[in-house]
User: Which sequence fits this backbone?
């Protein structure tokens, strides 16, 4: 009884004047649209709508607080609007962080509709290389990484009056660091408010960390989700998942399907197989992949409804697991696995490992159904597996990551004493030490571990420290412009299209750009041809390139170029003379990636990486048509074997010249073959011969 009484009271207390027909939208000065009222009616049914005044009170009265509500209850879309309406956004915007780009973008679009404003005006989003906000923006959805980046130029977060750390259960690297930083800012800014939100959080540890922050639990959910488990463990999860999807399509009433799988390749294969096996003639389907390296334009395609009578089937990684509402999804198929990034500080290697998801993730996945109508979730594991093998919550990223970029950011933020930084879960001292060691190698910190000028420049560039180091080196070699173009292509989803039925033609078209020196210079050629093309659309079609990715790379180039010019790197570059572009570029790359090189093994089939002596192969997608003695790679990926991706040929002379601290014939860590190669090259370097290609 007491509870009901309290709820009633709070409801009447919180009832701000509801807009009615003919009212003017205070944001635009125009009358509200018909659509606005349609959405308002559905919003009013959300559990969070009921808790509106409690949520506002919670944030007004407490510097930090925690809000927990079922998936789909309206936390992400409603709470920021309530806070804004209550006047909390008057002195600064409301930032709402999301762990993923697609979430920030799609939720902002929804909230703009709900408020009847243009996306980018009062409501906007900020994700890396895409800023859809303006002076007017009062609710800003952004990735946690972007807020962290903003902290570097504005440590007090002075633009914001409220920071909402949403989906806190995901424990991403950036959210964990924001925890520590915002906790510090709260000490000096009594007007700032911080709200931590999630559906699946073990609240106590968070409350404790946030100095006994109060907790508001919003009861109730939107629609029921019926959950089914497998009777037996499944041998091949991809096969079983496809079976289940096909079965749902044949037997279940209309409603879209969302299937979770582990990575790009798996997803593309599954899409093709579902297409082949489902009865699509009498029951049309629209099959859509969703993963983070897919161009944004394609990611967006999962949101609009399918044509009448067509069933939408979305096959996604865990990027659709939290925060995202795909209207129409009724069935969720969850094999219970995801690819986890694991970092081994001892060997400095990062790998992606298929691992069981947490119970919290399982709940989030199920929550993707039942948002706009009742749903069903098919778990391809047994109840016993759920109980015994799935961990309660996700293992924080900070304790399984390469901390190089993070340590650089913290140093830039003035956090000197990394060991005593208030981490909710401190990373291992070894990971910290390795990160500092790498930053030292890269010249970002000096012997005293103080940030150098190069380090400050590296931190100012929103890219990985290895890449930013390479850019700075390129400026000093007079080839900044070219390096920027290469970095721009690397920073966007791969632009190369290979449609199934046109693979040979596509490969031939791509070969036009091939440089004998490998992928980096081939990317430069792609970029230059693209920018010079009279009709870019036509050029992309003929060359089998994703126009959207190329456009994006142009944009990234412009943005990075602006930062480089602020740092006066362009002036430095213009003052240099670059004798050989091909040599200059590759030497600059070595400055950033000298630990990511590999030497060919006897037999000439595979390579041995210098960092951790692993057997590695050049990825088949590489432009390198031959197997040079030494290669530099941008990243590795493990499938059936370890592949190096984005590879260029380099010479031992270049290695000795650029990174003599690591590449000298007495270096104990290199393989005998690699050492012999360096020994052979040493006299040539001493004789002052230039490193030939
Ligand atoms: N794009 C959309 N189309 C239709 N309905 C939507 C859309 N976005 C949100 N909704 C509705 O608003 C509800 C609340 O969504 P919101 O994202 O705020 O929930 P949430 O509590 O943050 O959930 P989660 O914990 O899963 O992130 C959804 O359940 C759905 O009914
Ligand atoms: Mg949410």
Assistant:
């Amino acid at each position: 009884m007491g509870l009901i009484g309290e709820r009633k009271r709070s409801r009447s207390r919180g009832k701000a004047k509801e807009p009615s027909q003919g009212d003017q939208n205070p944001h635009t000065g125009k009358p509200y649209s018909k659509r606005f009222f349609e959405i308002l009616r559905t919003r009013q049914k959300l559990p969070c709508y009921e808790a509106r005044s409690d949520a506002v009170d919670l944030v007004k009265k407490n510097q930090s607080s925690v809000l927990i509500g079922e998936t789909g209850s309206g936390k992400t879309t409603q709470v920021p609007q309530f806070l804004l309406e209550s006047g909390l956004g008057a002195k600064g915007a409301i930032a709402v962080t999301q762990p993923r780009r697609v979430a920030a973008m799609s939720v902002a679009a929804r909230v703009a509709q709900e408020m009847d404003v243009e996306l980018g005006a009062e409501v906007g989003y900020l994700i890396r290389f895409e800023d859809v906000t303006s002076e007017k923006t009062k609710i800003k959805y952004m990735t946690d990484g972007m807020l962290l980046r903003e902290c570097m130029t504005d440590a007090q977060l002075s633009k914001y009056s409220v920071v909402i750390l949403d989906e806190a259960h995901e424990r991403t690297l950036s959210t964990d660091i924001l925890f520590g930083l915002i906790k510090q800012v709260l000490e000096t800014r009594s007007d700032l408010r911080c709200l931590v939100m999630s559906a699946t959080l073990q609240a106590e540890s968070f409350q404790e960390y946030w100095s006994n922050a109060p907790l508001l639990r919003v009861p109730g959910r939107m629609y029921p989700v019926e959950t089914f488990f497998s009777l037996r463990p499944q041998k091949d999860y991809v096969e079983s998942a496809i079976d289940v999807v096909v079965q749902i399509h044949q037997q279940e009433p209309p409603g879209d399907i969302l299937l979770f799988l582990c990575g790009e390749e798996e997803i593309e294969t599954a899409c093709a197989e579902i297409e082949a096996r489902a009865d699509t003639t009498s029951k049309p389907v629209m099959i859509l992949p969703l993963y983070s390296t897919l161009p944004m334009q394609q990611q967006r395609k999962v949101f609009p409804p399918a044509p009448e009578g067509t069933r939408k089937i979305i096959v996604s990684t865990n990027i659709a697991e939290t925060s995202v509402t795909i209207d129409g999804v009724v069935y969720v198929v969850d094999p219970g696995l995801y690819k986890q990034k694991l970092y081994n500080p001892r060997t400095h290697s990062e790998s992606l490992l298929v691992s069981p998801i947490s119970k919290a993730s399982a709940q989030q996945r199920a929550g993707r159904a039942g948002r706009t109508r009742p749903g069903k979730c098919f778990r391809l594991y047994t109840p016993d597996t759920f109980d015994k093998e799935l961990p309660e919550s996700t293992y924080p990223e900070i304790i399984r990551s390469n901390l190089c970029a993070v340590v650089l950011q913290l140093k830039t933020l003035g956090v000197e004493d990394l060991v005593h930084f208030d981490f909710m879960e401190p990373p291992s001292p070894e990971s910290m030490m390795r990160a500092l060691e790498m930053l030292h190698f890269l010249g970002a910190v000096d012997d005293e571990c103080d940030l150098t000028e190069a380090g400050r420049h590296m931190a100012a560039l929103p890219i990985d420290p290895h890449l930013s180091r390479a850019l700075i080196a390129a400026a000093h070699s007079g080839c900044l412009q070219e390096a920027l173009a290469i970095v721009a292509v690397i920073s966007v989803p791969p632009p190369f299209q290979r449609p199934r039925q046109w693979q040979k033609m596509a490969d031939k078209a791509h070969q036009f750009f091939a440089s004998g020196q490998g992928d980096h210079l081939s990317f430069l050629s792609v970029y230059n041809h693209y920018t010079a093309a009279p009709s870019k659309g036509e050029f992309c079609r003929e060359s089998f390139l994703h126009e959207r990715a190329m456009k994006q790379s142009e944009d990234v180039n412009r943005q990075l170029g602006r930062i480089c010019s602020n740092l006066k790197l362009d002036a430095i570059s213009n003052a240099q003379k670059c004798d050989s572009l091909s040599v200059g570029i590759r030497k600059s790359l070595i400055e950033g990636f000298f630990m990511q090189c590999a030497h060919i093994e006897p037999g000439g089939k595979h390579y041995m990486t210098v960092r951790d002596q692993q057997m590695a192969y050049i990825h088949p997608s590489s432009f390198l048509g031959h197997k040079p003695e030494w290669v530099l790679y941008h990243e590795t990926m493990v499938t059936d074997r370890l592949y190096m991706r984005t590879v260029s040929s380099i010479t031992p002379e270049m290695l000795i010249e650029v990174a003599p601290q690591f590449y000298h014939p007495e270096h104990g860590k290199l393989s005998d073959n690699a050492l012999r190669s360096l020994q052979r090259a040493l006299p040539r370097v001493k004789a002052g011969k230039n490193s030939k290609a």
Residues 1-14 have pLDDT under 50 and may be disordered.
